Amino acid sequence: MILPQLQAPAPIIAMHRTTTVNLPRLICLCALAVVVPAATAVSGEITGTVAGPAQDGENSRVVVWVEGAPAPATPPANAVVSQKGIQFVPQLLIVTEGQTIDMPNDDNVAHNVFSMSPTKQFKLGIYPTGQSRSVTFEKAGVIDLFCSIHRHMHAVIIVTPSGHYAETEVGKGYKVADLPDGEYTVKAWNPALGVTEVSSVTVTGGVAECDITLEDNS
């Protein structure tokens, strides 16, 4: 008896063909979704000129800063005001709220550094050559620095709320950059005239103009 010949089953191909076609396409779409960056905010700036009575030398200096900008997540590294040559070096220092200032005695005589300014009052006591004291400034404002032993020694520390500031001179321009949109108070300090405040300036995705006329608030 002759047995009937069995037909071999056809290979299964179609199912594999469907999955291998779509998989690369899915991977590409996921990759594209990952690399698309999110939109970033546009930083603005406040610019203008500083007008006021003509000043000579150091009295022509002006520091402009803003209040209302976000503060840095962590305070900047320690700044330094040294005592050298029986004077403060530097005699003007601008720092950020929460920042610490080291005050080393690099002189060959003892000093006693102090401040009676409302923003920050302290007295470091007498300390000799080679020693240092440190002070943290938690509040924005202007601080006058003195030495009780050497009465002519004087320095100014300006503590800004967020580190957004500019240095200029009377009769010249200024620019405070990297500001997000918002409402800001602009302040300007001059050694002869004190602090002048501009009530409100609005920054909206670009440049806001703010001219300052210094007033005598010394």
What does this protein structure show overall?
- With 218 residues, the protein is mainly β.
- The chain folds into 2 domains: 42-69 and 164-218, Immunoglobulin-like, CATH 2.60.40; 73-163, Immunoglobulin-like (Sandwich), CATH 2.60.40.420.
- 10% of the residues lie in helices and 47% in strands.
- Residues 1-6 and 8-40 have low confidence and may be disordered.
- Residues 81-159 form the Blue (type 1) copper domain.
- One of its GO terms (molecular function) is copper ion binding.
- It comes from Posidoniimonas corsicana.
What's this model, at a glance?
The protein is built from one helix and 18 strands. The chain is mainly β. The strands form five sheets. Strands 6-12-11-8-9 form a five-stranded mixed sheet, with no helix packed on it. Strands 1, 14, 17 and 18 form a four-stranded mixed sheet that branches. It has a four-stranded antiparallel sheet with strand order 13-2-15-16, with no helix packed on it.
SSE topology sketch:
Blueprint: H1 14-35, E1 44-51, E2 61-67, E3 79-80, E4 82-83, E5 88-89, E6 92-96, E7 99-104, E8 111-117, E9 120-127, E10 132-137, E11 141-147, E12 154-160, E13 165-169, E14 173-179, E15 182-190, E16 194-203, E17 207-209, E18 212-213
Parallel strand pairs: 1-17, 1-18, 3-7, 6-12
Antiparallel strand pairs: 1-14, 2-13, 2-15, 4-5, 7-10, 8-9, 8-11, 11-12, 15-16
Protein name: Blue (type 1) copper domain-containing protein
Keywords: Copper, Metal-binding, Signal
Signal peptide: 1-41
